[in-house]
Amino acid sequence: MLVLHGTGVSSGIAIGKAYVLHRERPEVPEYALPENLIEGEIRRFTAAIDSARSQLESIRDHIPKSAPPEISSIIDTHLLILHDKMICEAPVDTIRKKRCNAEWALKTQSDELSAVFEQMDDPYLRSKKTDVGQVVDRILRNLLVSNDEEHEQITDALDGQIVVANDLTPADIVLLKHTRIAAFVTNLGGPISHTAILARSLEIPAIVAVHNATRAIRSGEQLIVDGKLGVLIVLPEPGVVAEYQHRQKRIVQLKRELETIKASRSETRDGCAIKLYANIELPDDIKAANKVAAEGIGLYRTEFLFMNRPDLPDEEEQYRAYAKVVKAIPGKPVTIRTLDLGADKRIDSNSRGGETITVNPALGLRAVRLCLHDTSLFRPQLRAILRTSALGQVRIMIPMLSSLGEMFRVLDLIEETKAELTRQGQPFDPETQIGGMIEVPAAAVSADLFAPHLDFFSIGTNDLIQYTLAIDRVDEAVNYLYDPLHPSVLRLISMTIRAGKSAGIPVAMCGEMAGDVRYTRLLLGLGLDEFSMHPSALLEIKRIVRESDLTELGRFAEDVLNARHTGELHALVDKMNER
C-alpha cells in the first residue's frame, strides 16, 4: 500500500481502478524556413488556431443544459485566450521576423507569457498561466498531429475509473464527466485553477499537485481518492477499503441531511443569527448561490471582465454584468469588489501602470493602489457599480486598503462620481454602503482607525495570512508555513472583529478560511457573524452554525488566543470541533 499526498480540490471519496492518461506536452521542433515558405507556414498556424476554436466550440455546444454554468464560462475563457493578440498574432510576427516554424514561434511566445504569469502575486491570476498553457497545447497538437489523429482518446471505457494524468483541461473535464469517471488525480494544478473549479461544480472528487502520480501508478491498480484531505491511496489493504466505503456512505447521508436544512434559519443554538453569503466570479455563478439559499453575495470578483481580452470593458459592459447579478438575487445584498489587479498582471496587450515587472509584485502597484494611480480605470467601474445600486442592495468593497490616506481618496472619488451621476440624472442609491477588505496587516492593526469611516469590513484571509507570515502559499518551498491558525493571524482577525463591533459596523470574512469547516466554530467564538464562501461549502457551514453555542465557543476562543505554542493551539481547535 502506498499513500500519496496532494491538494484536495473537490471533496468526496472515490474507490476504483486507475486509468493513467499519458499526455505529455509534445516535443516542439525548431527549424528555419526559406523565404518562399513563410506565408504557407503562417497559413498553417492560422489553420491550427481555427481548428482549436472549432474543437472548443463543439465541446461547448454539446454541454448539457443541466450542467453548471461554470462549464460554458470556462470554455468561453479558453476561446477568448485564442483571440488574444499575444496568442494569435505575436507568433505570426515571430515567424516572419525569425523565419522559424509555427510550433517554435508559438512555444517562444508561450514561454514569455508563462514568465509574466510567474511574477504575479495574486494566486487566482497566477493560475491563469495554466489556462494559457492548455490553449497553447491544443494549438500545438493541431500543428504536430497529422491526419486528424487524436493524441489520446477519452472513451466510455473510463466509466467508474479514476483518471490519473499530468494535467487536464476544462474541455477534458467536460468529456470525462460524460464518461462518468469516479475521480481524477493530476501531477500539476492548484486549488483555484479552472480544472479545480469545474471538479467542484461537477462534484467529481479530485486531487491535484500529486507529484509524479503518473509515474507511481499503473493503469488497473486499485486507488482510493479522498478529495477533501488530498490523500491518494494506491493498492489499499482490504480493511482500508472497508473503512473508506463506510465513509462514502456517511457522505451520501450527510448530503441528504444538508438538503433538509437549506430553508432553515442560519442561527446558533442560543439564537444568534449568522449571515452566510456566497463568493462568485461570474454572473452565472449566481445560480449556484441561489441553489443553496445564500443570504446574498459577500464577494463578487470583477477581474473576469478585464482578463483575456485586448481591450478594457467600458462602463456599459460592466453595468450589464453587475446588473445581471443584482437582478438574479432580488432583495439580497451584493458586495462588488473593485478591481483587484496589479501592474504586474496583464489585462491587455500591455502592462498598466508601467511597462516593467516589479521585483516584488506582492508589494507593488496593485488593487486599490493601481486604481488610484490610474483613475481612468477606476472611475468607469465606480460609475457602473453606483448605477447598479439603483436596482438593489449593492455594496462597494475596496481591496488591499493599507492607509487612511488611500481610504479617504477612494471615498472622495466615490462622492465625485455620485455628484457626476446626479448632474446627469442617472439614478443610484445615495446610501450605497462602502466597505474595506482587511487583508494587509497594517489595516488589521489600524482597523479601529478605519472603522468610523466605513460601513463594513470583510477579512480577506488569503492575503492576510500570506502578508503576515511573509510566505507564498503556492510556492512549494515555503507553503508548509501557511497556517491560518498562526497566533499572529488569529490576533489580527480578532483585532479586526473587535474594532468593527466597537464602531457598530458588521465584519465579514470572505477568504478561504470562511468556507473551511475546521475553523467555523473558532471564528464564531471570536465573534464573526458574517461568512462568505464558495456556494458548495455553505450548507455544511450552516449545519455547524446550527449545532453551535456562542457562549461556550467564546470561552474556547479566548483559550486559543492565549495559546503560546502552535501544537497547543491546534489541539484546542480540534477539541472545540469535537463538541
Explain what the structure shows.
The structure is a single chain. With 579 residues, the protein is α/β, with parallel strands linked by helices. It has three domains: 2-23 and 155-256, Phosphohistidine domain (Glucose Oxidase, domain 1, 3-Layer(bba) Sandwich); 35-144, Enzyme I, Chain A, domain 2; 269-577, Phosphoenolpyruvate-binding domains (TIM Barrel, Alpha-Beta Barrel). The protein is built from 24 helices and 16 strands. The strands form two sheets. An eight-stranded mixed β-sheet has the order 1-8-7-3-4-5-6-2. Strand 7 (222-226) and strand 8 form a beta hairpin. Helix 1 (38-61) packs antiparallel against helix 2 (69-83), helix 5 packs antiparallel against helix 7 (128-144) and helix 13 runs parallel beside helix 15. It is globular, with a radius of gyration of 25 Å.
Tell me which CATH architecture of the largest domain applies here: Alpha-Beta Barrel
The percent range for helix content is 40-55%
Oligomeric state of the chains present here? single chain
Given this structure, which CATH class of the largest domain is correct? Alpha Beta
Q: pLDDT under 50 segments (min length 5)?
A: 147-152, 343-359
CATH H-level superfamily title of the largest domain? Phosphoenolpyruvate-binding domains
How far apart the termini lie comes to 34 Å
| Largest sheet: spatial strand order | 1-8-7-3-4-5-6-2
If you consult CATH, what is the topology of the largest domain?
TIM Barrel
What is the radius of gyration?
25 Å
For the record, the count of structural domains works out to 3
* Tertiary shape: globular
- Individual helix count: 24
Number of strands: 16
Mean pLDDT: 87
Work out the strand percent.
5-15%
Can you summarize the main beta sheet? 8 strands, mixed
Q: In terms of structural class, how would the helical and strand content be classed?
A: alpha/beta
